[in-house]
Amino acid sequence: MGSKKKWWQGKMKKAGLRLTAPRLSIIDVLIHSDDHPSAEEIYLALRRQYKKHTIGLTTIYRTLDILVQLGIVYKFDFGDGRTRYELSEGPNGFHHHHHLVCNGCGHIVDYTDFIDEEKELLDRTEKGLAKKYNFSIHHHLIQFYGLCEHCR
To answer: Residues 33-41: what's their mean pLDDT?
Structure first.
């Protein structure tokens, strides 16, 4: 992971948490993941990556819960019976995207190529909700469900 300070280290230190080997290992799996792994998939990745893997599944669940509470990790339910996770920011800062979830095969697409009309609609929606409910919106998560081109 190198010696360069990562964006999530400050959040952990601010919360009074140490940068333990299990926490660093779990974040490392998420950094290098191309999909949205479950806790079990993170556990299996750690077993493959480290010969002397000693991080238990309970520790992984507990660590993921902490990382979600700190806003370092997002937690998703894509309807496949497993909770899935991803980092809330990429190496270059916040990486906003939505998800397209196939109800047929379970494939998940990170959707980032927004058109101007989408951005305007979401901006108006956020402003309207904030005003209506006197609520300060910091971010949103949107998931679209349907069938991918292979399942149609």
So the answer is: 91
